Amino acid sequence: MPGNREQGTIVSDVNADNDVLRVVGGKPLSGQIKVRGAKNFVSKAMVAALLAPGTSVLKNVPEIRDVRVVSDLLRLHGVNVNFDDAKGIITIDASHVDLADVADVDTLAGSSRIPILFSGPLVHRLGEAFIPSLGGCRIGDRPIDFHLETLRRLGATVDKEHADGIHITAPNGLHGAKIHLPYPSVGATEQTLLAAVLADGKTELSGAAIEPEIMDLICVLQKMGAIISVDVDRTIRIEGVEKLKGYEHTALTDRIEAASWASAALATRGDIFVKGATQPEMMTFLNVFRKIGGEFEVRDDGIRFWHPGGDLKPVAIETDVHPGFMTDWQQPLVVALTQANGLSIVHETVYENRFGFTKPLVQMGATIQLYRECLGSLPCRFQQRNFEHSAVIFGPTPLTGQDIDVPDLRGGFSHLIAALAASGPSTVHGISLIDRGYADFRGKLRALGAEIE
Ligand code: EPU
């Protein structure tokens, strides 16, 4: 889908034809694919462009639906956005910012959690912001209490009494504050950064998240003129500045997509070179990949992942905030673990409800038992709270093709991997959900030799 995409609001590009994928599994995936910038960074960097009355240029941008949704949200606010999807370059001119029509924002935002991050930049530019009810994957409650508390501490008035969403105002601007996050939330850390960079005075954020995508956002903000330091104890200090300028930046690679293809190589006994994958952000994943018995080779321009033949080994893992094992790596890897010889244990500590995707895997032949207990070295926030957040996977079990409904982005890609590893045909419904975060995955699957229709 090459070319410039300058105009037009794309609320949905889904139709019945592109929403079902027929997969004939049982063939190893092998070949080379390219992964571009991280979905969970690019969308935030696009919001950061709102902070400066000038032009920002972001490179290595993936052609995914979340990028189009954020582009359209920016356009609703009068911002000029030009996406050259063939080159992966997005140019954002935020010289002019308007208040958007509430109903339009609501319609668009249905599929995304990004609108909450517009709060700080819009308050700085316009003195007010409107946040509609948020979308995103149904993998837990996903509250926004930390975000709203952060905004209040920085001096904003948060009005939740409106039926159509949350209104945030700060006629006298935002000011620096001391903020502590009860949990190192990625979104709330980004909220603080985007709101505090132009606030009056210093902000100290303790208990912050330090994911590589956040570090890259800090790099963008520093290029724009911000003063931000990160301490070893997860404290981020921001000295507010009076104004910021546009930036030029190349996005870090999507380590979730890279790990998804690595898991696909393992589950299908294949061999995939993921061009663009980088080692530092994937170290924790690579350790686990090696313990399971997967082979990898780090090259200058990417990482090759392959199944060396023979049995895979079971592992015990716990998901965690960075530098721990990412929650978003868990789902695709679980599919590979159904093929490991023995009992694997996965303790999910970031989201309370991220194992729903295992039910279709069980229907395909996997043996996976869910537990409410914390099956890990330490009890997590979900202890004694009735959430099935630990999984025991017994393998190897042959998988057979099924009819599958995609539940959420990562769960959906995992189902796709399972269908590719399974013998016989599968029909995967709701496949367009995967377009939110995996650019041209149909083309990439074909390039790897998958039989899909
Ligand atoms: N939380 C609260 N209150 C808040 C915010 C978060 O209780 O105000 C809790 C959440 O319910 C969750 C935990 O804190 O249990 C972590 O949530 P976090 O805020 O870190 O997640 P997020 O910012 O909403 C981003 C990614 C997710 C990724 C997580 C963790 C984006 C758009 N999303 O979500 O990515 O799993 O960080 O790394 O950046 C995905 O890409 O499929 C995806 C879900």
Strand fraction band? Answer: 15-25%
Spans of at least 5 consecutive residues whose pLDDT stays below 50 are 1-14
Given the helix and strand composition, which structural class is it? Answer: alpha+beta
Biggest sheet details: 5 strands, mixed
- Tally of strands: 24
Give the averaged pLDDT, no decimals: 93
Can you count the helices? 13
Distance between the termini: 18 Å
- General shape: globular
How helix-rich are the residues, as a percent range?
A: 25-40%
- The Cα radius of gyration reads 22 Å
**What ligand molecules are bound, each kind once?**
uridine-diphosphate-2(N-acetylglucosaminyl) butyric acid
Enumerate the strands of the largest sheet in spatial order, edge to edge or round the barrel: 1-5-6-4-14
How would you describe the overall organization of this protein?
This protein is α+β, with helices and mostly antiparallel strands and 453 residues long. The protein has 13 helices and 24 strands. The chain has helices spanning 39-48, 65-76, 102-109, 119-126, 145-153, 186-196, 212-224, 255-267, 283-292, 327-337, 358-363, 409-421, 441-447, and strands at 4-5, 20-24, 30-34, 55-59, 80-84, 89-93, 128-131, 157-159, 166-169, 178-180, 202-206, 227-230, 236-239, 248-250, 271-275, 295-299, 302-306, 316-318, 342-347, 367-371, 390-395, 403-405, 425-429, 451-452. The strands form six sheets. The protein has a five-stranded mixed β-sheet, covered by helices on one side. A four-stranded mixed β-sheet has the order 22-23-2-24, with helices on one face. A four-stranded mixed β-sheet has the order 3-15-17-16. The model is unreliable at 1-14 (pLDDT under 50). It binds uridine-diphosphate-2(N-acetylglucosaminyl) butyric acid (EPU).
